[in-house]
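Structure in, sequence out. Go:
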């Protein structure tokens, strides 16, 4: 019952903040929307669609058992690297960044999904490694951080320095909270910096 309460309260707060954000967006964009498209609710209606898609995605993510995240995280990281390669070659430009996939009147930026996928991927992989008390070959740590380096390189090449910095920050935070000895962290950190 307690767990159900927290889940329900989290969803409730999510919906409250989502609703407030939509109201603020509608208010702030109405004039520009009318001047550009002759419709005061153009940007607002688009954001409503994104909000609905996000809520549906949230529902499916909530019902997927966390144990399945490990296998799905590999598929996710491979898929997002493939998408980032694709937009780098055939993507659409927006604000000087070639990192968009335009589907009709909607645009999707794969680098935004890269942040979430990277968090899940690194968390799942390191969680598995931590369960193994003795890991003689530390190369596996470097290989996992290579995923971050590849993502940062692909995003930076678009060029989207802001998102690249955020991905770097995500990697750094996960690296800092790893429950391994400081010497090992130092070696891994210096190695990743040299590879980057």
């Amino acid at each position: 019952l307690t767990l159900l309460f927290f889940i329900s309260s989290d969803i409730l707060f999510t919906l409250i903040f989502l609703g407030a954000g939509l109201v603020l967006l509608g208010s702030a964009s109405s004039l520009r929307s009318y001047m550009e498209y002759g419709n005061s609710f153009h940007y607002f209606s688009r954001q409503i669609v994104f909000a609905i898609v996000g809520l549906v995605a949230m529902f499916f993510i909530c019902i997927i058992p966390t144990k399945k995240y490990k296998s799905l995280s590999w598929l996710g990281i491979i898929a997002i690297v493939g998408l980032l390669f694709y937009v780098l070659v055939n993507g659409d430009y927006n604000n000087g960044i070639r990192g968009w996939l335009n589907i009709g009147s909607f645009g999707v930026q794969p680098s935004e999904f890269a942040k979430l996928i990277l968090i899940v991927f690194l968390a799942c992989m390191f969680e598995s490694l931590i369960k193994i008390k003795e890991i003689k070959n530390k190369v596996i740590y470097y290989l996992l951080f290579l995923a971050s380096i590849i993502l940062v390189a692909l995003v930076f090449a678009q060029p989207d320095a802001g998102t690249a910095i955020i991905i770097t920050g995500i990697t750094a935070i996960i690296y800092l909270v790893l429950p391994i000895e400081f010497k090992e962290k130092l070696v891994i950190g210096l190695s990743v910096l040299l590879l980057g």
